[in-house]
Structures are given as C-alpha cells and as structure tokens.
User: Fold this.
Amino acid sequence: MAVTIADIAADAKVSVPTVSRVINGAGTVSEELRERVIRSVEKMNYKPNAAARSLITKRSDVIAVVEADITNPVTARILWEIDACCMKHNKIMLTCNYDSSNEKAIFLLDKLLERHVDGLIFMGVHLDEPLLAKLREFSCPVILAQQGVESGECEFTTVTDDSYHAARDVTDFLIQEGHRRIAYIGGDANDYTNGKLRLQGYLNAMEENGLEVPASYIRQEQFSIEGGHQGMKEIYENNLKLPSAVVCGSDMIAVGAIRFLKSVDLSVPKDISVFGFDDAVSDIFEIPLSTVRSCKRGEILCEQLFKKQEEQGKKEWIYYPYQVLRRNSTRRHQ
Amino acid sequence: MAVTIADIAADAKVSVPTVSRVINGAGTVSEELRERVIRSVEKMNYKPNAAARSLITKRSDVIAVVEADITNPVTARILWEIDACCMKHNKIMLTCNYDSSNEKAIFLLDKLLERHVDGLIFMGVHLDEPLLAKLREFSCPVILAQQGVESGECEFTTVTDDSYHAARDVTDFLIQEGHRRIAYIGGDANDYTNGKLRLQGYLNAMEENGLEVPASYIRQEQFSIEGGHQGMKEIYENNLKLPSAVVCGSDMIAVGAIRFLKSVDLSVPKDISVFGFDDAVSDIFEIPLSTVRSCKRGEILCEQLFKKQEEQGKKEWIYYPYQVLRRNSTRRHQ
DNA sequence: TTTTGTTAAGAAAGCGTTTTCTTAATTCAG
DNA sequence: CTGAATTAAGAAAACGCTTTCTTAACAAAA
Assistant:
C-alpha cells in the first residue's frame, strides 16, 4: 500500500492536519514540527493522493485540451506551448483527440466533466449546437481556440489567428512589392471561420487598392496539399493571364500550389510568388515559404485560462499577434 | 453545486449503493429500481465524480504518456494511435512533454505518481539511472517505448522499432537492386540505441554480402535535416568514388542528404539512391521517400499495457512489425 | 492576580464514491 | 408448513485528504 498522510503523521508524531499544513504551506506550524514532518515525508517518499485532494478542494490541477487532430503540426506546436505554460502554473495538460467528429468530442467532454478539470481549451472547427451545449456544462473556464462562434456576443472567450488582418497585410505586402494580378486559394469558407476571414481580408485589400479580382482568381478547395494543387491547377487552366502572385489560406495549400506550378515548369518565386499561412512547414519544405506566423499562442491561451479566475464575466474574442514572414517563395514584381 | 449520487438516490427514492450498482452494472438490482435510477440520472444529468471514485477504486482510468517532444511528427503519430486505443479501452490519455530534460521528466513522473495513473508509456531516449529509479516507483504497468535499456534483462516491458533487422533489410534490398557502394548516415550512436542498431544492421548486411565499407562511408551526425546535410557533404567531399546509395538513420537525415545532393547538382534517385527511416515526411516532402514504416505501434503499446494486468511478471522486449517501403528516392543500379 | 487575546496543534467532520456488512423478503427443499 | 438458502436493497464503513472547530498554552493588558 502507498504511504498516506496518516503514516507520515504517525512517523513524525504529529497530527494529520499538521502534516497537511506543512505540505500545503498553509496555516501556522512551529519550526520543530515542520522539520519532523519534512524528514518523515522524505524518508517515506510520501506523495499526496491527487484524487483525495481533488475530492475536497474541487480542483484537479488538470488543464484539458481537446483538439481535432494531434498529428497536425500546427496543433502539435500549440499543444507544446500550452504544455509549457501549464507547467509553469503547476498544472498538468490532458489532451484528447476528437478526430473531427463532434460526436466523439461530446463523448470526451463528458469524460472531462467527470474529471472536474480546472480549465478547458477546445481547439476545433465545426462547432455545432450540441457541442456548444456540452461546453456550457463546464463550470471551469472554457476557451475556444481556432474557431469562434460567429453569431456575435462571445459566449466563450475565444482566441484565434487574426486571419482577416493578416490576409490583408499579406495582400497589401504583395501589392507593395509590385504585384497587381493576385489570386487566392483558400479552404472551404462555409465551415471554417478562418477561411472566410482570410478570403475577406484578401478581397478588401484588393478592393482598397483598386485592383480587379476576376472570379476565376479565387478558389476554395480543401485545406490540404491536394486542395492547393487542385486550386492552382484550376487557376492555371482557366486564366489566359496568370496571376503573378497567389495568396494561400494555409501552408499546405501553398505547398500544393507550388507543387502544381513545378509540374507545369513554372518557377517559384521567379514566375509566380506564393504566400502561405501558419508557418507550419518552414523546416522541411524545399522552398523557404513566405508565410504568416501567429505568436505566443500557448501563453495567450493559458493567460486567458488563468486570468479568468478573477474576471470570469468578460468573454472576449482575442487574436494572437502575428508576423508576416517574407521568405523565398515570393519576390518583387516589376 | 454539482449533483451527487446522493441527490440521485433521493430523487429516485432508493439508497446510495443502489445507484452505484446501477451505474456500474455491478451487483443485483431489480428492474423497477434500475429504471427509476436511470431516469433520475438522465433527468438530473448526473456525472459520477472521478476523484471520489478513483479514491476508492485505486484506478484513475488515465493512461499517461511522457514523451520528449510532442511536435516531432513521429511522436505525434504514435500519440494519435495510443489515444485511439485508449479510447477503445475507455481510458483517457494524459500526455506530458519532457523536452528531453531528464530532470523535467522526473518532475513530471512525480506528478503522475500522485495521480495514480493506470499505465505509463515512457517514450524517451537517454534513460539514466535516476530516471529509471523514478520509473520503478510506479506500481502500474510501465512501458518503455523508443529506447530500451541495453543492459540485458528487461526490467520494463520495452517496445521499439526493429531497427537492426529493418536496417539489414534495407541494405539487403539495395544490394539486391544492384548497389555495391552503399554509405550510411546515422545519428549519434553513443546515446541512441536505435542509432546503434541501425548502424549495426547496415554493417552486418554489408559484411554478409562481402561488401567493403570504407570508414569514410559512415557518418554519425544529428538526427536532423542539418545532420543529414552535413553527413552527405562529408561523404561527398571525402570520397573520390561516391556511393551509389545511402542508407539514412531517419527520414530527416534523408531529407538533409537529398537537399545537399541537389545543391551539388546530383539527382536522386538518378545519381544516388537515398533510403530513409520512420516514414515521417511522406506527404510533404518533394520526393516520395523510400523508407521504413513501423506498424501498429499504438495497438501494440496499449496491448502490452492492458495485457499486463494478468501477466505482470513477464517483461519482454517487443518490436513493432515494419514495412520496407520502396518509393522514388531509390532505384536499381546497373 | 485576573482577563483577554493570540497562537500552535489536535479532534472531528466532510468531500462523493464503492464496498462490505446486515437485514428483510422471498424461494425452495424436506 | 418449517427451516435453510437465496436474493434485493439499505446502513455503515472506508478511501486519503482538507478544513473547520476546539482546546491548551502562553503572552499581554487591566
């Protein structure tokens, strides 16, 4: 059997509450007893039982993160950041994959409810009503990452990329660099808020600069290499005048686009500049990709999670700061 | 306040143990009461408190996975697989990053000890004595993934890639394909058991086929793109007769090697064949990489974890089955 | 002195379950 | 029928902590 607080109390010849006080640094206990307790704790290698403690304190020191797909490099990176922050706050991170199945997500959330986690970060898209209802059941702080609820007021604090402004900045940047014919390949904008906002940012930047956008310059495919490939192919086949630059809704799309361009002997960035989004492939892709990187995601998420203790009430929509990274998949256009 | 088992008992007009029996499907309870209980549970949206349950059952339904780096794609993929298996067994996966710092790993393991997890998978390299000592403290099944302890008898059940045989097979395969001058670029073999075994497999295959291996054909760098780049560079610069094929200790190394070759205008696989390891970059890398893929990792790990309940005693070293995948970074040599 | 206030530490209650122990009710063999 | 065996369900204990309540000891103020 594991050693319990009573064993320590007996060994140190003090009462159980005294041991508890020493361990938690709460209450007052004389130097003499404190030392005796600490000695016993070390001697017997005592570890407080988290379940017993949790039962009474109503905390678990666990932060849950539910994500669609842990193998997505962007997700994995954010998890890494969250984990690092949790560590600092003496919390432990519990992650669950929901495989983009809201049904599975609800199943998982039920499990987490039983566990009385101290905080929940839900990194998901396709938020539907049953899912939101389940999220409402949590009494701990809940944060939506990746996708907000469009409807208006924030029911949950939401933290996402600043897709709209970033897409505008990227497009502006390309225009500054002399590009005039700029196309866009994004993901499905019906479901993905990010997709919608990126497209909007691109469109607004073009419009504000008085630039024409033929419908054939806009493609909405999948957020994947295949999607990018397909989108670029369609643009290539349906336009006599090719764009000199393409804004992509994700790095994966950019990779696919570049791969297609290579297949028809067009060179990037010599013939066409390609801009990505997410900074997900920087270290492995053959071309250093110009892209947008969101910063301090883990910190911002955790900060929201922990800050809320005081300011429970205020739910807001927060954006990660971002950097527009100009690398070698784009160049000036003359 | 959350609704408790007592609330359900009161609402259903039964005793607390009866509710417990219904929920756990244990013991005997009449159809009538069972229905009353179920109705109350649903009506009041009751969720049993995991901490209270865990306190008494000494189980937590949590499987802990401690890994060096969650952003490593190979790791992320295995986590995905483990999570899927845990789900099937009605367990929840708790993951912690230890950032390749054994000190941090020990800190995390202490936290997990407090939590009385039902199983532990430690995916790490550089296992040193303090770390092993900490692992011994667990009373639940502990599995070492990724690296075993060389010493001999298995203190912990260990599951790893079958690096030795796979490297032999890869080398054999290249020899069958007509290659005679085959080089090897691996990671640091002092620390990484996998590195050591892959090198050994390569060497044995060469020897058994009566093929010469000049020392300048063997490089041990980092398990990274830079490492592969550097290793290939050295081989290129130090050999008048270049190899016709290179066995790499990881896909990252292979990517680096290919990148170097491209930089000196050598074509893969036309001029040189390159074989990777891990199947980590298949979808994004420019060349479909011939590589080794380990299979069913999640299943095998979980199977070991859960099987052990009965056969606690037997610790063994188990290998994932693997496939040698011939793709387009290698070709026959005439 | 006596009273009041303060502090250190123990006693006891309680957190929400499961499990063991009892009891009452029912069935069945003799 | 009676007594033993079986069954369904409640009472009570236990899990390992934290927290509240209480007491004893002592110091400071009247």
Remarks:
- Chain A is about 45% helix and 15% strand.
- Residues 2, 4-6, 16-17, 20-21, 24, 26-27, 48-49, 51-57 of chain A lie near DNA strand D (CB under 10 Å from a C1').
- Residues 100 and 130 of chain A are 14 Å apart (CA to CA).
- Chain A has a mean pLDDT of 91.
